[in-house]
Amino acid sequence: MAANSTFGEIIGGQKPVLVDFFAEWCGPCKTMAPMLKELKDAVGSKAIILKIDVDKNPSIAQHYQVQGVPTLMIFQHGNIKWRQSGVVPVHLLKGELDKLSKVD
Fold first, then answer.
1. What are the residue ranges of helices labelled H in 2-47?
2. Closest CA relative to residue 70, chosen from 17, 18, 22
3. Whole-model pTM?
4. How far is CA 28 from CA 2, 11, 33, 80, 101, in A?
5. What residues are labeled active site?
6. pLDDT confidence of 103, banded at 50, 70, 90?
7. Which residues pair with 72 in a beta bridge?
8. CB–CB of 69/6 below 8 Å?
9. How far is residue 17's CA from residue 90's CA, in Å, rounded to a whole number?
10. pLDDT tens digits, residue range 37-87?
11. In order of start, what are the domains of the chain with their CATH numbers?
12. CA separation (Å) from 72 to 2, 4, 50, 77?
């Protein structure tokens, strides 16, 4: 993925994209960080994992009506396929990504 890709280009692709809306000051967000690394190791190139700091990207957070952090969303072809707030277990996230990567 090119470093200068826009958010819309990244989430608009065929590959599922898990977006973690987080904030530096958020305790549960810090809990999610190593879990997302574990998830990335598990799914490899089948999915993209993207972290969006809501304080640095307020317009994106507002556009997707992110009320609290962490909020996790999975996009595919630009559409939200799954969304949940709070700490989400790795096996649940992997299950959601696996469902979408089989639908290619």
1. 7-11, 27-43
2. 22
3. 0.92
4. 30, 24, 9, 22, 27
5. 26, 29
6. low
7. 20, 84
8. no
9. 15
10. 999 999 999 999 999 999 999 999 999 999 999 999 999 999 999 999 999
11. 14-101 (3.40.30.10)
12. 23, 23, 10, 17
Amino acid in position 6: T
Tens digit of each residue's pLDDT (9 = 90 or more) over 10-34:
999 999 999 999 999 999 999 999 9
Whole-angstrom distance, CA of residue 93 vs CA of residue 39:
8
The 10s digit of each residue's pLDDT in 77-101 is 999 999 999 999 999 999 999 999 8
Q: What DSSP character marks residue 45?
A: G
Whose tokens are 């979408």? That residue is 100
CA 83 and chain centroid, separation? 9
